Amino acid sequence: MSDIDTATVVSIRDCGLNEYWLQERIFADPSILGLGDLQAVARERTQPQGGRLDILLKNPEDDSMFEVELQLGATNESHIIRTIEYWDAEKRRWPSRSHKAVLVAEEITNRFFNVVHLLGMAVPIIGIQVNVVQIGESRALHFTKIVDSYEEPEDDDPPPGGAFDEAHAADNYPGALECARWYKTLLEKLYGEVQVKYFESYVSLSVGGTARVWIYGRKKKDRAYVQLRHGEDGFQEAVDRLNAEGVSFTARSNGKDLAFSVNVQQLQEWVAIHEWLASRLSPDALLRRQCGVGGEDGGRDE
Predict the structure, then answer these.
(1) Are residues 109 and 186 in the same domain?
(2) Would you say residue 283 has pLDDT above 70?
(3) Where a domain ends, among 96, 118, 148?
(4) What is the pLDDT of residues 213-245, one digit of tens each?
(5) Interhelix angle for 174-191 vs 283-290, to 10°?
(6) What is the pLDDT of residues 57-113, one digit of tens each?
(7) Count helices and strands in the chain by DSSP H and E runs
(8) Does residue 209 form part of some domain?
(9) CATH number at residue 71
């Protein structure tokens, strides 16, 4: 390990650069934000209430929009408010699309976390910390997603008229169904029997009597959104390992869930990581099976 250098963080201004430079870098390659393969739509977009939105991005898979505000230094009240205002304006302009507010700053402060907590699910807001990291004479731009307040809904009861089934999933979100089958096989190797439930737009998988994995359909039917209920214990360790391995993921603001936008080929590519994550989803159930103790723990399918 002695050959690993120590990095230092240098402010963007101390590098002789400014916010406009950062805007150009992100607009030229939105993937550096770590939010997926987004497309650049507009920059310095004039807003009806005044001001300009730094960057507008779009996910080509489902046409969802990302309203991105940039700030050098630490987050403050004015930039947080501006981010939410611009998100609201674009949401009114494109009401049929999903929208997420994104604030990119060199330091995400406690004030930002407090605002996210107060807003709850009213505003899906993402906080990304951007830093220039220096190692020796080399400098690199690094982005870290600190908070993502958006969470997919968990299991609910089937609508009146009966439950959904595998045939419904095959017709409406085949890619998600394929990923669900893949994950079910993976979980069965560890936990034995895995309960499957089908819903209008997703599948849930339960281990130890509790739902731990949700696989949601996407507009591109060969893809899925896989969400794991990792739990609080060791959550940061999982986040650190995923970052170290270069796996694209979202760490939910509840400090329990990890999510991946994938197809089944990408799951297979990262099978070792997903096997490791799967082993941590229900440690008690895994221990009971390893010790040869049968039965469920009486938990409910959330």
Answers:
(1) no
(2) yes
(3) 148
(4) 999 887 777 888 899 988 767 888 888 888 888
(5) 50
(6) 998 877 889 999 999 999 888 889 999 999 999 988 888 788 899 999 998 888 787
(7) 9, 13
(8) yes
(9) 3.40.1350.10
Same domain, 88 and 210: no
| Shared-domain flag, residues 230 and 282 | yes
3-state helix, strand, coil in the chain (%, to 5): 35, 30, 35
Strands 125-135 and 99-107: parallel
**Is residue 1 in some structural domain?**
no
Distance between alpha carbon 149 and the CA centroid of its chain, in Å?
9
Q: What is the pTM of this model?
A: 0.54
Under 8 Å between Cβ of 58 and 93 = no
Residue 143 · residue 129 · CB < 8 Å: yes
Instruction: Report, as an integer, the average pLDDT of 242-259.
Output: 78
Report yes or no on 69 lying in a domain: yes
H/E run at residue 87: helix 77-93
Band (295; pLDDT cuts 50, 70, 90): very low
Residue span of the structural domain in which 258 resides: 166-290
Q: How many domains does the chain have?
A: 2
Residue 176 has pLDDT above 90, yes or no: yes
Does residue 264 lie within any of the structural domains? yes
CA angle 99, 100, 104 (to 5 degrees): 145
Both tokens assigned to 235: 């959550």
Q: To which H or E segment does residue 19 belong?
A: helix 19-28
Tell me how far apart the alpha carbons of residues 113 and 170 are, in angstroms, rounded to a whole number.
40
121 DSSP 8-state letter:
T
Q: In the Cβ-directed half-sphere of 182, how many Cα atoms lie within 13 Å?
A: 22
Flag whether pLDDT at 264 surpasses 50. yes
One domain for residues 80 and 171: no
